[in-house]
Amino acid sequence: MSGDLRDWFHSHWKTIVAVIEQGGTPDVRHIAMALRKGEQVPSEAQAYIADLLTQKKQGRPKQTPVEIEFAQWQRAEDLTRAIRIIRRRNGMCSVAKACAIFAGRGKMVSPTSIQREHRKALEITKRRRAEWAVYTEQAAGILGETPRQMIRRTLKAAIAERDTNQDDPIDRPLKTGRLISFPDK
Questions:
Q1: CA 121 to chain CA mean position, Å
Q2: Which of 63, 74, 59, 61 is nearest to 182 (CA)?
């Protein structure tokens, strides 16, 4: 009988480890029961138990501040580009009308919230473009080019890449599934 119990607890650790490896959370009561038997704990389970004791959260790793700022800037560029394209396609209509058209394409977002996000996006893109102007000048100096030569070379490569990707730029902010969500400063 004791052999059967030993096999059961051994397989219990296997079950716990399998749940951990699949990214799940095993029941703490099962871990406690397996620990009470005094058997050797697999290394995968040891790491999980250590994380439980130190209350380390498992899941997607946090983004660095640089990654967060870059993603925010990219979403701001996408939104301002989409509004600019809508305005051009509709005979340079007002920003309010363009935001209303954009809101109509999304998932029940009010035009006023789109306008608010657009204003924040314009602030971010203006600030980032000024920073990039400085970076471009410094990089061009390092490469031995004028900023204009470097930008032309880079734009040619970007246009060639864009031509291979035929997505409508208006839909890009909608495909991400969320709006810009800028933090208030």
A1: 17
A2: 74
Q: In whole angstroms, what is the distance from residue 124 CA to residue 121 CA?
A: 5
- pLDDT single digits (tens) 42-77: 888 888 888 878 876 666 677 888 888 888 889 999
- What is the pTM (predicted TM-score) of this model? 0.49
Euclidean distance between CA atoms 129 and 97, whole angstroms? 26
Q: Which sequence spans correspond to the domains of the chain?
A: 2-54, 65-175
Q: Which residues contact 29 (CB under 8 A, 6 or more apart)?
A: none
Are the C-beta atoms of 105 and 172 separated by less than 8 Å? no
Residue that is written with structure tokens 């810009």 in the block: 180
Residue identified by tokens 């473009």 is 129
Spell out the long-range contacts of 58-63 with Cβ–Cβ below 8 A and sequence spacing 24 or more: 58/23, 58/25
